[in-house]
Amino acid sequence: xxxxxxxxxxxxxxxxxxxxxxxxxxxxxxxxxxxxxxxxxxxxxxxxxxxxxxxxxxxxxxxxxxxxxxxxxxxxxxxxxxxxxxxxxxxxxxxxxxxxxxxxxxxxxxxxxxxxxxxxxxxxxxxxxxxxxxxxxxxxxxxxxxxxxxxxxxxxxxxxxxxxxxxxxxxxxxxxxxxxxxxxxxxxxxxxxxxxxxxxxxxxxxxxxxxxxxxxxxxxxxxxxxxxxxxxxxxxxxxxxxxxxxxxxxxxxxxxxxxxxxxxxxxxxxxxxxxxxxxxxxxxxxxxxxxxxxxxxxxxxxxxxxxxxxxxxxxxxxxxxxxxxxxxxxxxxxxxxxxxxxxxxxxxxxxxxxxxxxxxxxxxxxxxxxxxxxxxxxxxxxxxxxxxxxxxxxxxxxxxxxxxxxxxxxxxxxxxxxxxxxxxxxxxxxxxxxxxxxxxxxxxxxxxxxxxxxxxxxxxxxxxxxxxxxxxxxxxxxxxxxxxxxxxxxxxxxxxxxxxxxxxxxxxxxxxxxxxxxxxxxxxxxxxxxxxxxxxxxxxxxxxxxxxxxxxxxxxxxxxxxxxxxxxxxxxxxxxxxxxxxxx
Length: 584
What we know:
Elements: H1 4-7, H2 51-54, H3 59-74, E1 88-93, H4 97-105, H5 112-116, H6 120-129, E2 135-138, H7 144-158, E3 164-170, H8 176-183, E4 208-214, H9 217-222, E5 229-238, H10 250-264, E6 273-275, H11 284-296, E7 305-307, H12 310-313, H13 320-334, E8 336-337, E9 362-363, E10 373-379, E11 384-392, E12 409-415, H14 418-432, H15 437-450, E13 456-462, H16 465-476, E14 482-485, H17 488-491, H18 514-519, H19 521-534, H20 542-546, H21 559-579
């Protein structure tokens, strides 16, 4: 990742596949921007949406469905397990291009309202996942998605939600706003966003979607979740009566950052990196730079680096804040401060005061006295400002050793169709290029325990990452594998109940369970617990009876030992299977 953010540059030509979506009356599409491809493509069946309705749904809503699913799986959560929970949804959305396109076609449809209005952008996620927490769509322009994070944190802190999806989305499907911003002198004249740079001339409009999964820290630790960073505090305010409706206020920005620091119980010197709004405009950059100087320069003892993801991916407007948030979370998690792309020298309107805009990526070195911490800013031309303070995740709790490693592991994959299943296999094969054998085993475990199950399934048994990659690549190319299409009853959503049935007397034998006892700590510890509990009631150790020499197996066939032995093995198997995520 450290190399990725040093070089990624999303500015591109308008995709040819999009020209049929561009209104003919609008003339030629923009020469450059940060464009997504195939935004007209959508797997409606996966999200239980009829094709006719999907046509009227804003592609921004479709992106939110796709990215929210990916975010939940990345968090190690089965999206289908959240039904009925108090999970909240907080989405930043600004553009209404698709609504104007639909209205211009004068084709009445009952799906037009829900497909293009702002409120269903969050409500549709709650509906699809059956979430019962609050669902808010926020429009504060460029600060919308970071405002969504701010409101999500408040919902979690108040106990209103126990989990939250927060983020934003932006697509450029018609020219009106681009023409407006160009007339206002906001857009870059050279097709590059150069935050705080001597060559800055504005920003590049871009597209994208980002969603993060948020949870109270105490709950995430208790549940054993993978924690990438901690939201230490967040604050929001308004510019008020500035020099103009869209003109930022230095006083408001100073007050905002100071408030966030106060809520976080931190001093300015505790912050090592600022992910700035960094619009690259002649008005915005000097005001933001001056506000940061006023807060962070006095009494500073450690370096402060300032950057903006807009140099990499352009200005995603209603999704801009979540881009900066995600970039900073990754920087904290990787202990790495990425370079500021396209930065040559500080703009002459910005006074140098010790803060540095990094021209190369550098390790984020630890400090013996303080954790790594960063601030993320996002400002809307509506005047609404948001600042979030992030801190590196607490040290991960070491999990107990699983004992002797298995010689082979199984990877189970599933999808809605055979084509999709082979694509999933190809995706996993690509991931294995950079995976260690330990990572391969973790991946197999996660796929079994945390992913949803669909009608088309495949299983692969391998002893190493390289062996598994070979099998996956072969299957993705069309070769057969151990696949199964499950019953139509499960496809329609009817639950399939799982039960464990264990045998009675007569099935016992000397040495039963020995291989598992020697290779699995979970199984062995369960048997040892049963042995310890029985010692007060039997003259011989249960383990000695089960694992004794076959020539002396008479005791195992006596009811006094046979029944406890069968129970103990059944109990140990249950504990082992449940540790793998198989629960009756």
